[in-house]
Design goal:
Layout (H helix, E strand, L loop, with lengths): L19 H12 L3 E5 L3 E7 L13 E5 L2 E7 L1 H22 L5 H14 L11 E9 L2 E7 L5 E3 L2 E4 L3 H10 L1 H4 L4 H14 L12 E9 L6 E8 L5 H24 L1
Antiparallel strand pairs: 1-2, 1-8, 2-9, 3-4, 4-5, 5-6, 6-7, 9-10
Helix pairs in contact: 4-6, 6-7
Subunit structure: The 26S proteasome consists of a 20S proteasome core and two 19S regulatory subunits.
Protein name: Proteasome subunit alpha type
Organism: Aspergillus turcosus
C-alpha cells in the first residue's frame, strides 16, 4: 500500500517543497459550508450558510461575535474555530482593560496568523483546520480580512471560502464596483445573493440555515460612531430574506418589461 512519508508532521517539506499537513487543513476549509464577506466605505458584512450534521441535530454556528467592533465567520472545523475565537476574545478584552480602547482589526488578525504559523514550525503540533473571515471597524474604517490555516492573512474587498464558494466569488467579482457606494441594506442584499449562488437547485435560504453579521460606522463626517456588531440569526433574519425576495421579484418584472418593449 502506498504511503506518503512526508505528511507525518507539519515541519517536514516534501521534495516538491510542499507541506502536506497544511494542504490537508486547507482541504478541511474547502469541505466546510460557505461563508461570504463584503466591505464598503461604512460597513462590513458577513453572511454564512449553516449546516446540520443530520435531520435531528441543530444547525452549526457560523458567525461569532468577538467584540462589539468585530466578528468572524468560520469555514472548516468548528472546534478549531472555537479555540481561535476564544483567543481573539481574550486579546480584545485585554486591550480594553489595559489601554481602555478596542484592539485594531489588523493587529488581532496578525496575532492569530502568527499563532497559526507557529503550528507549522513546531514538531507535534498541527495546523488549524479552519478558515476565517474577520470583519471589523476601527479608526481607519471598516475592514475585512481572510485567515488561512497556513497563517497567511490578507485584507479583502470581498471574499468567499468553503464548499462551492467559487460561484459566490464569481458573483462578487462581477459586482465588485457596486459595493463601495452602496448602503448598509444593499450590501447585505449583495451578500445574500452571493450566498444564494452557492446553493444547489433543491435548496433555498431560510431562517434556519442563514446567518448575517454586520458592523460599521453610523452617522456622517466627524460625528461617525461605531455601530456595534449585530448578528441576525433565527427569526431576526426573516426581514432580510423577505427584502431580498422583493428586490429580486422587482428586478425580474423590470427585465420582463424591457423584453416586451424591445
Amino acid at each position: 500500500m502506498f504511503r506518503n512519508n512526508y505528511d507525518n508532521d507539519a515541519v517536514t517539506f516534501s521534495p516538491q517543497g510542499r507541506i502536506f499537513q497544511v494542504e490537508y487543513a486547507q482541504e478541511a476549509v474547502k469541505q466546510g459550508s460557505v461563508v461570504v464577506g463584503l466591505v464598503n466605505k461604512t460597513h462590513a458584512v458577513l453572511v454564512g450558510l449553516k449546516r446540520n450534521a443530520e435531520e435531528l441535530s441543530s444547525y452549526q454556528k457560523k458567525i461569532i461575535e468577538v467584540d462589539s467592533h468585530m466578528g468572524v465567520a468560520i469555514a472548516g472545523l468548528a472546534s478549531d474555530a472555537r479555540v481561535l475565537s476564544n483567543y481573539m476574545k481574550q486579546q480584545c478584552l485585554g486591550s480594553r482593560m489595559t489601554y481602555g480602547r478596542p484592539l485594531p482589526v489588523d493587529r488581532i488578525v496578525t496575532q492569530i496568523g502568527d499563532r497559526a504559523q507557529t503550528n507549522t514550525q513546531q514538531y507535534g503540533k498541527r495546523p488549524y483546520g479552519v478558515g476565517l473571515l474577520v470583519a471589523g471597524v476601527d479608526d481607519a474604517g471598516p475592514h475585512l480580512f481572510e485567515f488561512q490555516p497556513s497563517g497567511m492573512t490578507q485584507e479583502m474587498l470581498a471574499c468567499a471560502i468553503g464548499a462551492r464558494s467559487q460561484m459566490a466569488r464569481t458573483y462578487l467579482e462581477r459586482n465588485l464596483d457596486k459595493f463601495a457606494d452602496c448602503s448598509r441594506d444593499e450590501l447585505i442584499s449583495h451578500g445574500l445573493r452571493a450566498l444564494k449562488e452557492t446553493l444547489s437547485h433543491d435548496k433555498e435560504l431560510t431562517v434556519d440555515n442563514t446567518s448575517v453579521g454586520v458592523v460599521g460606522l453610523a452617522g456622517e463626517g466627524d460625528k461617525r460612531k461605531v455601530e456595534s456588531f449585530k448578528l441576525y440569526d433565527g427569526q431576526s433574519i426573516s426581514p432580510l430574506l423577505e427584502a431580498l425576495e422583493q428586490t429580486e421579484s422587482g428586478e425580474t418584472k423590470e427585465e420582463e418589461s424591457m423584453e416586451v418593449d424591445s
